[in-house]
Amino acid sequence: MTSRRFAFVGPTLPPSERPDHGCTYLPPVRHGDLYALDARPGDRILIVDGVYQHFAPIRHKEILAQLARGVHVTGAASLGALRAAELDGFGMRGIGHVYEQARDGRLVADSDVALLHVDDGEEDGTAARGLTLPLVAVRHAAGTLLAAGKLDERAAAEAERAAAALHFTERSPRALLHRAGDAREAVAAVLAEIDVHGDVKKQDALLALAAGDAPEAVSVPAASVWHSSYGREGEFDHRPLTSGSRVTARIALACLQLFAADFPDRHLAYALRLAATGPGPGADAGRVLAAAGFPPAPRPEALLARSTAATVGWTADERLLARTFRLPPGRLVYHDLPPEALADGSTAEVEQWCLRLLPPAGSPPVPTERCHRVLRDLWQARDDHEYRLCVLERGFRDGTEAARLARVFDLELVDRLARTAA
Predict the structure, then answer these.
(1) In DSSP terms, which residues pair with 7 in a beta bridge?
(2) Which residues does 383 contact at the CB level (< 8 Å), separation at least 6?
(3) 326 and 332 Cβ atoms separated by less than 8 Å
(4) pLDDT tens-digit readout, 275-331
(5) What are the average pLDDT values for consecutive 10-residue runs of the chain, which has 422 residues?
(6) Are 87 and 64 in contact (CB under 8 A)?
């Protein structure tokens, strides 16, 4: 199977300057993007730009998960260079001057490569256009002029200090000149150098794109080394249900958790299978709880063992097990879409249900309280405590998680359908 090439690039290399190397260009990377890409072994990913202030940045575990499955991941020029330096020796490849600076400890702050920019997605040629200069570009240009004898050490240092004194969102060429003071002449020379030869981040990005056809061989430890509860949750949240689908595995499970009338029974079957102390059928909730150190035979009317409309036929032990079940080490209830959740259905059917229940594009977010009211009515919860029990017996960690996932769907449509059925 032919390997594919992906590059997460933004303001470092505007669209008009991106070479055609058979590469699929994507916007600056953020947390979850590598999981959503669903890359195959042998695919090549180049990370140049990434977000880190208004969105969660790309996590190290996410990169390590790709490396462990045989995907080549390279970083250069910007946030990608920092991640490559941090994961040096773990299989991620780094290219260029910025990467070397970070690897050698001469560049330590994310803000040194940051800049304010126009987002990708525009059609008028201004997409990913940088509005400010990264400190690393000023530092490299000053060093280049110093090496060429065009600036002395004092002037080069003054130009760098003038740039470092500005926050990355304010470091425009005009602001640099305005705030330069006695270093104005040195700053003007640095800006002219960047204007003529381009900044170092752009040079590194072009170098990495040209080198992408020949990834270096790396030795990557087994995939099991990189598993963690947060990594599993991140992958589950962003992995497509099927290749190319806009429905993730997590949203597919949420659709069943929220709207399948019999999901508590499915959840109990799942918990019994994974929590059973012995092999084979006939797992017993009381035996599982006893093995876990719970006292035997909890009172049927104990707060956590009370029945709801969906669990009236269960034993108190079954209710307690379903509502307290967690995967080791104890954070997650689900990190995949198990067969019990699907019951007799298929992933294709669940995907279609999700697509029908997603809200129209541009719909305003549903208020959290509205989410709770719809779910309370749907699950026939008579009071706040019973609602909390419904949340737990459907495999949610808490009501906050249930409401967050419910907001993905068109709850007004769900409410109308439920009232019509009633």
Answers:
(1) 25, 46
(2) none
(3) yes
(4) 875 444 446 777 777 776 776 655 666 788 899 999 999 988 899 999 999 998 888
(5) 88 86 90 90 93 82 89 93 90 93 83 73 50 86 89 89 86 85 87 86 92 57 63 90 91 96 95 70 69 65 87 91 89 93 93 93 90 95 95 96 95 85 66
(6) yes
Contact 242, 251 (CB under 8 A): no
- pTM, two decimals, is 0.77
Check if the beta carbon of residue 317 is closer than 8 Å to that of residue 232. no
Cα separation, 22 vs 239, whole angstroms: 24
Q: How many Cβ atoms from other residues are within 10 Å of residue 97's Cβ?
A: 19
Q: Give the span between the Cα atoms of 216 and 218, in whole angstroms.
A: 6
Please give the Cα distance from 240 to 297 (Å, whole number).
42
One-letter identity of residue 267 = H
